[in-house]
Amino acid sequence: MMTQTAHLLDDDLPETTPAVEPPSDTATARPAPSAKPQRRRMNPDLLRTIVTGALSLLLGLLLWHWASASNFNWFINFANVPSPAKVFTAFFGHLGTEIFYVHIGVSMRRILISYSIAVVLGIGIGLVMGRSRFARSFIMPYIEVVRPIPAVAWIPLAILMWPTEESSIIYITFLGALFPIVLNTLHGVEQTPEVLVRAAQSLGASRLAIFAHVVLPAALPSISAGLAIGMGVSWFSLLAGEIISGQYGIGYFTWDAYSLINYQDIVVGMLVIGFLGTMSTAAIKQMTKPLLKWQKRVR
What we know:
Elements: H1 2-12, H2 44-69, E1 73-74, E2 76-77, H3 84-94, H4 98-131, H5 133-146, H6 151-161, H7 165-190, H8 194-202, H9 207-245, H10 250-259, H11 263-288, H12 293-298
Antiparallel strand pairs: 1-2
């Protein structure tokens, strides 16, 4: 009886599937295809921009050469303007002299000192004015009165106020960079959406947290623009100071070339100032670019 029951139970068990044998060691795995290194292609828009800019500069050089070669004289007189070939010949000649690098180094040192002071004070004053009506009402009259005064007009008073010519030049350059930074910072703080401030307040954020995480990020685009504009104006102000009261610097180099009726060096000084100003502004934009990454995420 027990034998028959055990037989019936064995019949009710499900059939087991045969175990799959593992692949033998002799079976060779198919090699994975090797990934080919992908070459990074330049952005078509960037390439188009570079090509367009290069063609524009080439066209400008051709027009400059034609005007100087033909002594163009219609409202603008190119009779005494040197050709591009003469200017670049003089420029490469100055590259072999030590005094040329001294002029450039002195101007860049003055820009670095005066612009750094203007950045610290300008951003600080702009932020305070943007968040305090009393501070805005108290400081704005001074800004509106002093800001329209050109850099050249400051030179006699700056020489009387400061003990050395170097400090007076730095002061004039500082004033040129200060006001664009202050006003753009003030504009950026004023343009902060009030709904964001109220939302942060409703979540229990403190005034310092609101300032650091709402107001300051919202003002960064305007601050960045003010820094770039201030850099350009600082070079203009530096040039004015060096022309009148400097002994070294690229502005003094340009003015000295005019005094000696050296037309090639006048243009060389102008082009060097333009190049240094462009590179300085581009450096400021690259330095502030990481702070504006949130704009791409918002878009």
